[in-house]
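note to self: the first set is below, dont mix up w the second
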Amino acid sequence: MQKYEIFINPKQLNQLDKDIWMDKHVPAVLKIGSSQYKIGLSYRGNVIRKKKKKSYNIVFQKPFTVNGAHEIHLNAEFNDITLCRNKLSLDFFENIGVSAPHSKHILLYINGYCKGIYLELESFDQYLLEKRKLPLGPIIYATNYHANFSIFTPEKELKKSLDDGYTLKYGEKKDLANLENLITMTNTLSNEEFEKQIPMILDVKQYLTWLAGVVCTQNFDGFIHNYALYQNSETGVFKITPWDYDGTWGRDLHGQLLDHDFIPITGYNTLTGRLMFFPQFKKDYCDILSSTLANEFTVETQTEKIDVLFQTIVPYLHLDPFVKATPEIFNQEKELIIHFIKKRNAYLKQQMIKLQ
């Protein structure tokens, strides 16, 4: 496991601790192997900021990009005893055909003290688009539960703005008008017009593949939060990508157990509900989900991936001051995940018959 060392003036570190909600970056130095980089450092996340093991956001300053990235995230994965569910999920999405941030586990030190095992994640931004040779275009994050593709909040109140729940990561403010157009179409067009026009602004099959991924991994927040939208500037079509997937594979974001049938086969948001009205879109979804259940979301496929991840993590558990898991606990969690896959797979196959 690669070692990341951050060196920071204690006064700057105290500044972060004095106001854990501050998003302003403070200067620091990141050393990886024999290379050193000047960086800006801040805490990131929401609930995690209150925990002892915090997550970090890093922006490279000199040089401005490293391995094609200007910004990376170091996630504590504090509520996931395996530290692996997020990576297992994002790799799963990549394997079923949905572009997702790449990730790897690292060992983090700050001013010589080991802070434990962290998951380094790519930032979904314009630099990632360039790295993957995709046309530049607006990137919009779903940053709270109002990002449900509806004109109403989850509390059934009329939204003050159609872009409520979203934050522009890359692009200009006017680019939000295209998102507002997607939401307007979803909520106001007749069935005939919606079926005809939606493929012009949304990559429907890619969206349905993403939906299959959220449904399989059972991310409770994934349908109205924990995603980003990217609009290809050449085609004008939106694609969707996942992020923050630690509350998956049988546990929620707090680490509590979730029954295998907690999330329905179509999830829940207004856009999905609209798409499922049409027989062709429903058939496309069932075909995608059926293939996923037969090939990727299986005990055989995922057991191998879990083993590789656990073999990476377990030898370093004793170095993480915040982790109390043992190899025996990891084995128990592996069995829990495998049991979840088996039960969830069977449940979704059963529900797919009803859906068709």
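second set (the one i keep forgetting abt)
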Amino acid sequence: MTDPGPSPAGPKHAGRAGVPEIVFLGVPIARLDARGAADHIAARAPGQPFAYVVTPNAAQFTRLNELSDPRFHDAYDHAWLRLLDGQVPRMLARRLFGLDLPHAAGSDVTLDLLERQIQPDDPVTLIGGSDELRRRLIERFGLSTVHLHVPPMGFIRDAAAVEACVDFVLAHPARYVFLVAGSPQSEYLARQIDRRGGAVGVGLCVGSALNFAVGLVPRAPSWLRQAGLEWAYRLMRNPVGHARRVFVDSAPVLLTALKARRDPARYGMAPNATGRG
């Protein structure tokens, strides 16, 4: 499904990737589901200048709308493709604004790429992760060239460490560059690579997607994901580590959506995007 057709509220326009987009909570979202996104990414010819993909979820909508983070805005403004990751934002879009946005979770896009699109001889570069992740990727998906650079903890605050990441990407040209340093670090880094120039391939800011794909981290059952309850599954498995992400980083998206319903134009949405469409 590369374009699910007109939405009852909000105009469409083509973004940088040549894909129709619709603005939701200030973010132009590509109208691609996971398979359509994987196909579009894989269709980009090898050797083209570096461009990157971001996958907004509830926490990222919150960072963009409720926090003052110019670097994150800049990273999103220059992204090649923005794919809707979160089921909760998707539900809010449908119920409050009448927008039927396709779901393209970074984990689903990544798995589709690995299973259908990435060929054994396609070079892949990882920024973040582990030797075990690299080993499992090679073993499970038959990849022949996987370069790995693991930056130190807190690297994004160290200019030299950031430059080392950028240098590694330039020194190891790849068709696919997986940035798995967590958000917002991955998005900041993607923008730095883009700004430097000279790199090639598609950068993918996809969080824990590779860990899910190789079985290092279990993913919620599909019925929970479809119900928009993957956050609850992660919270149950790791209540201490995931509580801040759920209740502090993500929950304010509800406030953002309510404010956008009162004043959709402020969030770049069509004046009639009020859910009555």
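remember for set 2: Residues 159-171 form the longest helix (13 residues).
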